[in-house]
Amino acid sequence: MAEKIKYSRVLLKVSGEALMGDKAYGIDVAMTNKVANEVKKAHDGGLQVCLVIGGGNIFRGLSAAASGIERSTADYMGMLATVMNALAMQSALERIGVTTRVMSAIPMTTVCEPYIRRRAVRHLEKGRVVIFAAGTGNPYFTTDTAAALRAAEMDCDALLKGTQVDGVYDSDPKENPDAKRYDTLTHMDVIAKELKVMDSSAVTLMKENNIPIIVFSIHKPDSFENVMKGEGICTIIRT
Ligand code: UDP
Hints:
The protein has helices at 29-44, 61-66, 71-95, 117-125, 143-153, 187-192, 200-208, 223-228; strands spanning 9-14, 48-53, 100-104, 113-114, 129-133, 158-163, 184-185, 213-217, 235-237. By secondary structure, it is α/β, with parallel strands linked by helices. The chain has a nine-stranded mixed β-sheet, sandwiched between helices. Uridine-5'-diphosphate (UDP) is lined by residues 15-17, 54-56, 60-62, 75, 78-79, 81-82, 135-136, 138-139, 141-144, 146.
């Protein structure tokens, strides 16, 4: 069981894969709507929510670089993929009445707002869900690191990672039925044990800024809302 902590502002990182549903590639609208519903439920409870969506369902820089595209160019393509996902999520949220703003680390002002920290904070204060797109705006990074960076900049109480499973396990629970889920870990445990939760740069940034990381299943109904109430199943990583 998660501990009862009062959260007022959090950042939720969802990988591109989570929007894919059963498809092998791209955006599954029904799945995107499901994730949007989970965000709405937590937001309706008065929580300020920011989102970072990955791009791996559309384009991954590293694999494209392996097949011959120059690495930085491939990474910029990956960042553009996250903008597509952010727009899909914006559309899904607005359809159910949640006001949103997409802010991109790579300015593309005909599509969305450029990322300006103080404007982002203002949007959150006004109760808008802010979706941060285009990662950090720099190649050689990932959206996990972007999520950690924005969580620190927005002074979030926690960084949530919505995954396919309900926490961090000592081995892959899909392959090992005896895999053990951790209730709590320290940031240092994750780094030292090389647990596959987030990139080590993201975990280090959260450690240095004393921001907990909460790993939970984005696919379990009500899990985001429940974890925020201290009731859901998750792993809490904190110093
Ligand atoms: N990317 C990048 N810089 C960033 C964030 C993302 O270059 O700050 C690129 C990188 O090529 C990455 C792709 O965008 O492979 C998609 O992001 P990610 O793999 O983190 O998405 P996820 O695995 O969360 O779906």
